[in-house]
User: Fold these one by one.
Assistant:
Number 1:
Amino acid sequence: MFYVGFYQPRDSVKETVAKMEEHHDIPVMIGSINVLIKCCSLVFLDLQKLNPQNSIAITRELARENVKVIGLITGVEEPRYLLQLVRAGIISLIEDHSLSSLVKGAYVAQKDHSILPPTLLQFLRENIVEMSQLCKEAFAHKLLKSGINLTPKEIEIAYLLGKDLRNRDIAYLLNAKETTVKVHISHIYTKTGMKRRRELIQYFKELKYKEKGACS
């Protein structure tokens, strides 16, 4: 049986963890990273108990073992630090540590979706969506070399799909309606010949880092 793991949760979170198993029949475990890697498919890291260097290193270690990672944050963390955690492999960052929020985080992770705080989404809007012209051209060039001809807006959405963001988050970052994003993604499916979102996300991830010096 695979458990949902918690690494060094604060006391208030420990109380919630007990309720996850009692009220939602979610098997949980609190233990060392070595134990959690062996037994868990999803691990919550309480980032209040970890310094940035350790949290990033632990996230990378878990991600290498194909363990999904959710970070429990306080809401005062620097956006650049949160972005580093996402790049290291954290799938969601949750500020609300209530029972319903943690359960939702676990279910969302099972569907390979992300939960990101507004501060990080705003940072992404300002610093990642506004990619340099060089990054846009490089990504579009790689798409064309692969025989995929997307519109400028589809290229932006493809780039963000490669970051494993949900449609709602992509819409927020592009200041667009979620229905509009869905239409663009349906066109991307047609042009790539792919039918599964996970397949599409993985393809764009690999494409971005295919050549040395690729933009992140």
Note: The CA atoms of residues 47 and 54 lie 9 Å apart.
Number 2:
Amino acid sequence: MKRSWAFAPFAVVGVVHLVALAVNAYELAYVSKFCLMPGLLLALLVALPSRRSEIALWAGLAVVLAWAGDVLLADPGELGFLFGLGCFLLAHAVYIVLYLRPLRSRRLFSRSRWWPLLFLAWWIVLLVLLVPHVGALVVPVVIYGLVMCAAAAAATATTPLVAVGATLFLISDTVLALRFFLPGFSLWQADVVIMAFYIVGQGLIVAGAVLAAQRGVARAAEVA
């Protein structure tokens, strides 16, 4: 991938953030978290062959929404939690547009490709686990779970790199939801696990989008 060096700041901040979480350096973790998505946005804009494209628009918007979600969920009250959840909901919805429009390279469903339905099963299992415990948040949680699983399913119509990234993002959100709502749920270094899946997942989605854009430009040049 051309200009892969553009992802270096994002990768460095990601490592710093994970190490800070692991050693309980909370102030550094707090600051570095806010730098993650700006670093990824910078990588996207630098590495893309054209900033005036659907890929730039949808991928950039999703990253900005994810950054807003990071900020709002960093120290949320009930209102901050709902707004943060809303930002990530919109981020997943924007990613669906990205996957099914400029990044789409194959059919989502076919006789030989039934496995995107596994994400429907994922959503159902998640609801069975969480709904008895979420109280008044049942509607937002149901909707959010559906959209995030739909995004991971839609990513299977793109490239393997993007699909893996979307699945890792889904795993991050799933573990976070279990930690928030499921009584007795415990995971060693849960913050590190959640953020590791989130950072790598988001990075792979954007890297896959950039690579698809670069290959599209190369194909167009060959035809010309």
Note: The CA atoms of residues 68 and 124 lie 28 Å apart.
Number 3:
Amino acid sequence: MIVHPDYRRKGTGNEIMRKLVEEYQKANIHIELFSEHNNASYYENIGFKEFAIGMKYNK
């Protein structure tokens, strides 16, 4: 998720994620996110847990 710099640190991203999770849970949809490592703590702070290690070819 990307939040415009003018709206960061105001709870905008948290509210969007809260509403998405709420709606997905109502619809019984399994949620998985892929995130850059440096952004993982944001998602952990709102209730997501790391579940896998990803790899990419970098040559």
Note: The chain has two helices and no strands.
Number 4:
Amino acid sequence: MTDPRIEAAARALFGDRVDASSGTREYLFEEVSKALAAADAAAWRPMSEAPKDRTPIIAKTRSDVFPESSNRSGWNGRHAVIQHGGILDDGFDMGWSVAAPVGYGGMPDGWFLGWQPISDFPEKEPLSAPETITIPEVRNDRPIPEIGETHS
């Protein structure tokens, strides 16, 4: 099955010629595939150009950030929505954090291959913290088992 992006781009560029013969079709799809791959590669911008104002972006981590033996190797080669915490008045770089409430942050530019804007992100202004934060009551009256211990 052909990638729908390749077929749509080929039809937009070459119209009915895509259906001329299987050889022509394969050639046009191959050329369009090369063009789309080049465009996709060029779409990754250098991290030095990324906004550092809490604007969410999509970024791709390098494949060698953590050794494969590390419990954090799952971050290697991943796409993630991240945002930068900003540069403090004293010049301290807050680094990148995952744009989700997972508590993982402080990642340096060097961890990433590049970034792309999230074009349909509805918020144009940087997010600000509310004046008050309401924390819901959490109830856990069951004991937490130790590693290797089981409870029924």
Note: Helices lie at 4-14, 22-43.
